[in-house]
UniProtKB/TrEMBL annotation:
GO MF term list: pyruvate, phosphate dikinase activity
Protein name: Pyruvate, phosphate dikinase
EC number: 2.7.9.1
Domain of life: Archaea
Organism the protein comes from: Candidatus Iainarchaeum sp
One Pfam match: PEP-utilizers_C
Start and end residues of each PEP-utilising enzyme C-terminal domain: 2-150
Record-linked InterPro entries: PEP_util_C, PEP_util_CS, Pyruvate_phosphate_dikinase, Pyrv/PenolPyrv_kinase-like_dom, Pyrv_kinase-like_dom_sf
Length: 163
């Protein structure tokens, strides 16, 4: 459908442009069936705000009312809308990357949302094999620094393993 529609538009405009077809991965089921989705998608962009919301079953609009209490009581260590939850959301991302790349070797994967500008979340993305992070403009410098630090940390780790 996408290619047929693109072909029609290209013909109407007498112009072609290169494009890629990808999907937003925002639901746990999408992550668990990533191999099937990758048959049709050239990239995955994890919408970690929505994926966090659907994984936890929290309304993001209401979470600010109870998450501070959850943190205070030790139910949560951090606000999962600020720092990527590695046990749940992160595991779903890892599963999706593995399954997706199992079905499509050259699949590009990344995240978009506020997690893309949070340093420990960027480090997780690097360790999970993601290709990119996307974030709001004011977080770009933080994201770039965090990505560089994650790459250097990995390089240092592999260097000392080889010595």
């Amino acid at each position: 459908l996408v290619e047929r529609t693109a072909g029609k538009v290209f013909k109407e405009k007498n112009r072609k442009v290169k494009f890629h077809v990808g999907v937003m991965m925002e639901l746990p089921r999408a992550c668990l069936t990533a191999d099937k989705i990758a048959e049709f998608a050239e990239f995955f962009s994890f919408g970690t705000n929505d994926l966090t919301q659907t994984t936890f079953g929290y309304s993001r609009d209401d979470a600010g009312k109870f998450i501070p209490s959850y943190i205070e009581k030790g139910i949560l260590q951090e606000d999962p809308f600020q720092v990527l939850d590695r046990e749940g959301v992160g595991e779903l991302v890892r599963i999706a990357v593995k399954k997706g790349r199992g079905a499509r070797k050259n699949l590009r994967v990344g995240i978009c949302g506020e997690h893309g500008g949070e340093p420990s979340s960027v480090e997780f993305c690097h360790s999970a094999g993601l290709d990119y992070v996307s974030c709001s403009p004011f977080r770009v410098p933080i994201a770039r620094l965090a990505a560089a630090q994650a790459a250097l940390k990995e390089k240092r780790k592999t260097y000392f393993e080889d010595v």
